[in-house]
Amino acid sequence: MPNTTSTSGYFLDKVASLNFDQFFTKRNRVLLHICMWLGFSILLFLSYVIGYHLVYFDAVLLTIRMAAVNIIVFYMVFYLLLPKIFSGNKTRIVILLLMLFPISIFIWMAATYFFSLFYYALGLEITFGELKGVIKMSANQTFLEAVSLKRMLSQTIIIISLLSPFCFAKILVEITRLYNKKFQIQKEKTALEIQNIQIEKDFLKAQLNPHFLFNTLNNLYGLTVRKDNLAPELILNLSDIMSYTLYESNTEIVRLEKELDFIKNYIALEKMRYADDKDIQINIEGENQTAGLFIAPLLTFTFIENAFKYGLKSIKKSFIKLDIKIEKNTFWLSLENDFEESLAVKNFGGIGVENARKRLELVYPNQYELEIKNQDSSFKVDLKIVLRK
Question: What share of the chain is helix, strand, coil (3-state, %, to 5)?
Fold first, then answer.
């Protein structure tokens, strides 16, 4: 059994990708309308010849009359009446739409009657076939007889059968154009959001470099003066961090192990700023399951940086605890830090956290869970992401 969902989705994607503004030029619209009415006239001509056994000349006369009448009604309804109807309020729209159908029938019958008068005045008549004498019969009526309620009811089915294909085609084209326009707007909006995210990520990288680099270089200077054996390790960590932020994070996603290395290097360098009595813990489980997994770069940096910005300040108990777990293709992060109650902030992280939420929503829609808790004496961030392979 065919997959109707995927088929309809493929069709909608194709419709959405069409450039209607480029295709629907004035020239192309005119050509399409000409082809539409030409096709209608050919089918109408054949129906008169085959169905009513008319000679070619008589079939042409009735084809011209019927095509002209339908053209008048079609363009009057869709290009004159409907635009005016939809320019009012809802009540007015409903009332006028209800009136539109009988008005269309009236116009159709009146135009048919006047064409018959015109043909009759020229001495034209159907002389053979089942419709013999139809022009004289129509012309001999008065106008009120031609548009009487009884005749309007009898002609309704004919009008619907003649005009409905064109009305349906017009409605289908308009719906398709609206869908295409909506898709294009959504596409532009998404592109703009992605551009904003890239700007925010670049801002993150710029934000990382100045104060963090300054503190790290101070620590490095102290270790070098003391000829501490940790100096080479510090230089290597700093080199890895700068390489990651400047070069490797310029893509939408990076290998998960690279992001984990960045986190470990960053925390290792931050630890050197604090005394040994500060409780800074990092625990990563499942590093052996990172093969083939990717994550948005610097996605967790905002939360980790905020932990060091607001944490390790409490007099009673200062701590930062980071737990990361990778299982199958899911990434869990739990980060908790103390804060000094007298300096507590209402919105933890401010705009940085909001930007992180936006990135999660764009890169991992319906594939992440983020919870930030402002507890009695600590902040806690719980993040879960279903990663890409």
Answer: 65, 10, 20
